[in-house]
Design goal:
The protein is α+β, with helices and mostly antiparallel strands. Helices cover 61% and strands 16% of the residues. It contains six helices and three strands.
Length: 150
C-alpha cells in the first residue's frame, strides 16, 4: 500500500503520540481517517449546539422583539470557526419576522461581544442571521398531503 507523502513523513516523527497515531493510519487507512473526520464533525456539532444555547440565552435576556416568539433553530459554523450562520424562526406576520432579523443584525456586535465572554474560542465567529422558513415549509407540505388524502 502506498501512503501519501505527508503521512509517511509524520510517521517518522519523534513525538510518540503522533507516531502511534500515524502508524495506526498506515495499518487501517480507511478506518482511521474515518475516525479522524468523525472527531472533527462532532467537535463542530458541539460548538454549534453551544453557540445555539448561549445565543438563545443572550437573546432572551437582552433583546426585545415585535414578534411574539423568536427562537434559534440551528447554528452552522464554518470549519475554520470564523463565520456562523444562525437560523432564526419568528412567529408573526412578514413585517414582524423582518423586524426580528433587523433587530438581530443591529445588535450583532453586542451579541458577538457577549458571546466571546461566555464561550472561549480562539476566534469569535462572525454571526450571520438568516430567517428559517422550515416550519412554514413543513406545514405547507402537511397541508398538501392532507389535500391529496395521504
Amino acid at each position: 500500500m502506498v501512503l501519501p507523502f505527508f503521512i509517511r513523513r509524520l510517521a517518522r516523527s519523534k513525538n510518540p503520540a503522533l507516531h502511534a497515531y500515524f502508524i495506526r493510519v498506515s495499518l487501517y487507512m480507511g478506518i482511521s481517517l474515518y475516525i479522524l473526520f468523525l472527531e472533527m464533525k462532532h467537535r463542530l456539532q458541539r460548538i454549534c449546539e453551544l453557540l445555539k444555547r448561549e445565543l438563545g440565552t443572550l437573546i432572551l435576556r437582552d433583546l426585545r422583539f415585535d414578534a411574539p416568539l423568536v427562537s434559534i433553530n440551528s447554528v452552522d459554523i464554518t470549519p475554520d470557526l470564523k463565520n456562523a450562520h444562525v437560523y432564526v424562526s419568528a412567529l408573526g406576520n412578514d413585517q414582524q419576522r423582518k423586524s426580528a432579523i433587523a433587530t438581530l443584525e443591529a445588535h450583532r456586535s453586542q451579541l458577538q461581544q457577549a458571546l466571546s465572554k461566555r464561550v472561549v474560542l480562539k476566534n469569535t465567529p462572525h454571526l450571520h442571521f438568516q430567517l428559517d422558513a422550515s416550519i412554514e415549509r413543513g406545514t405547507r407540505i402537511i397541508s398538501l398531503m392532507d389535500e391529496l388524502g395521504l
